[in-house]
């Protein structure tokens, strides 16, 4: 029995013409805020507010740095600046009794000066011994 596997599941559907639902909301919200600024503020102040609003809405809609939506970058920016940050570092001096001395096993350890063939055969012999 064969099943049809869905493909391109990471691509959003185009609902409103060439725009996805999210893109449409970003553009519609930006347009609405620009219109409200135009109607409620004097013209020269409205222009100063409309330009950043329109560019931000355009970036939310179309700009994808490193292949990710711009919303992810805005979210990371807000999380970094709004969440509390507490960095602590306190160096503690250790006592000599707390230190653990490493014990060296006196068995054969391959050295870099030996041939690679001997090291390889030694490694294979050790692996065979551990499997038994």
Describe the structure.
With 132 residues, this protein is mainly α. The protein has a domain at 14-82. 52% of the residues lie in helices and 4% in strands. The chain is built from four helices and two strands, in the order ββαααα. The chain has helices at residues 21-40, 43-62, 70-82, 116-131; strands spanning 14-16, 19-20. The protein has a two-stranded antiparallel ribbon with strand order 1-2. The protein is elongated. The mean pLDDT is 81.
Please summarize what this structure is.
The chain has helices at 21-40, 43-62, 70-82, 116-131; strands at residues 14-16, 19-20.
Our measurement of the CA-to-CA distance between the termini, rounded to an integer number of angstroms, reads 45 Å
Strand order in the largest sheet? 1-2
- How much helicity do the residues have? 40-55%
The computed structural class is mainly alpha
Overall shape: elongated
- Major sheet characteristics: 2 strands, antiparallel
Share in β-strands: under 5%
- Average the pLDDT over all residues and give the rounded result: 81
Low-confidence stretches: none
Tell me the Rg in angstroms.
Answer: 32 Å
Number of helices: 4
What is the number of E strands? 2
Order of helices and strands: EEHHHH
């Amino acid at each position: 029995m064969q099943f049809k596997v869905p493909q391109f599941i990471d691509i959003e559907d185009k609902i409103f013409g060439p725009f996805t639902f999210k893109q449409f909301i970003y553009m519609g919200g930006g347009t609405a805020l620009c219109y409200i600024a135009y109607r409620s503020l004097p013209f020269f102040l409205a222009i100063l507010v409309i330009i950043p609003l329109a560019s931000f809405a355009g970036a939310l809609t179309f700009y994808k740095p490193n292949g990710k939506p711009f919303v992810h970058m805005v979210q990371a920016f807000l999380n970094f600046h709004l969440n509390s940050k507490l960095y602590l570092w306190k160096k503690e001096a250790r006592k000599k009794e707390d230190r653990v001395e490493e014990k060296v096993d006196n068995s054969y350890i391959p050295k870099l000066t030996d041939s690679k063939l001997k090291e390889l055969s030694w490694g294979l012999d050790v692996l065979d011994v551990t499997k038994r």
